[in-house]
Amino acid sequence: MGDVPADALPAGSTPAAAAAAPVAVTEGESTGPRRARRALRGTGIRERRRQQTRLRIVDAATELFAERGFDSVSVVEIAQRAGVVEKTVFNHFPVKEGLVFDADPPMRAALLDAVRRRPAGESVSAAAGSFVVAAVSMLGAPEAADGVAQMARVIRGSRTLLTREREILGDLTDALAELIAEETGARPGQIEPWLASHAVLGLYASLLELARDRVLAGVSGPELGAELRRQGRRGLALLQFGLAGYAKRR
Fold this sequence. Notes:
The relative contact order is 0.16. This protein has helices at 33-40, 45-68, 75-82, 86-92, 106-116, 124-137, 145-156, 159-184, 192-216, 221-243. The protein contains ten helices and no strands. The two termini are 21 Å apart. By secondary structure, it is an all-alpha fold. The protein folds into two domains: 10-99, Homeodomain-like (Arc Repressor Mutant, subunit A, Orthogonal Bundle); 106-243, Tetracycline Repressor, domain 2 (Orthogonal Bundle), CATH 1.10.357.
């Protein structure tokens, strides 16, 4: 199972988007606010102020979404709690969903890089699938528990966020399929790259939903991580049974 860089991961890369979102490990707790605040050190005064304002906005949005749900909170209310004007919020986040999901999630680059760097003899499904299992298993980090549960409730309680999540997963599926098609020289209309990509992202979506089910049932920490790894390996084995021989590096 490949290692996954903590700063490369899923479901959202703002601190509001805990790993329960498609695109990153919970920045809400394990990699987010602390890492973001450490990153402020050594930057210029203007940039530091900009990042501090951004963090205040995200913190305010996170609190309000947890209190009342995403759809019930207005951008004006977020601005008021953060101590800024509404325009400032939109300067940092052009759409409200951006407070939960990054427009270009870090997981996209990390997943594609895992595929590009796979060794000779390893299939796309093995490389991408192993990355996905490792990534989602990070939701079981003890320090991530509160953030994962909170964002699971927020996302599942919002039709807007669920729709946006499906769009992000669709974009990620397209990006992986395009990389596979390019690498294999697939002809236009050839279905194998898309089938392989959908299979891998289907595994990701399934594990993400399992993680949310379990955290909302009170399971977290090492127990959650172990279950996600176990189920992920089972899913990966099933995926490999059908795709093991496809797109092996020569």
